[in-house]
């Protein structure tokens, strides 16, 4: 009888520990997705993805990280650095009203207008929310980027989307067309 009572006491404990195990399994399943989303918003994304075993290609990580660095150069008004991400000529808004930029000087002037005159008031930084990596060939990639802009109070002030077209120039990937929505 004592053994039976003891076993009856253990049944709830074992079922409770089983529930914890299921919760732990669920959390462990979700963790790569959470970390993967974090990886999309940081220059260290490739390192985070490698830790969690994400199967994204090295090329995809390269392009996404390059976009993040481009975004940081925009944030810091580092126009010289920003221009390094492009191959000329560059086309802006080819889907609406195409504007052809033929050299670095013209590109820097364009970004000064965008960043200093046309940006949302109190713009502080941008975050990549999600993206779609589209590899059309070995030398041509489109990054469909959805991003948010924040102010100095860390409040979202804008949500945007852009198609960023990259081509391989020698061994580097360079932007040559940007379409924003």
Number of strands: 6
Round the Cα radius of gyration to an integer and report it.
Answer: 24 Å
Quote the CATH topology of the largest domain. Nuclear Transport Factor 2, Chain: A
Oligomeric assembly: single chain
The overall pLDDT, averaged over residues, is: 82
Portion in strands: 25-35%
What can you see in these coordinates?
By secondary structure, this protein is an alpha+beta fold. The protein has two domains: 38 residues; 123 residues, Roll (Nuclear Transport Factor 2, Chain: A), CATH 3.10.450.50. It contains five helices and six strands, in the order H-H-H-H-E-E-H-E-E-E-E. The chain has a six-stranded mixed beta sheet, covered by helices on one side. Helix 1 packs antiparallel against helix 2. About 11% of the residues have low confidence.
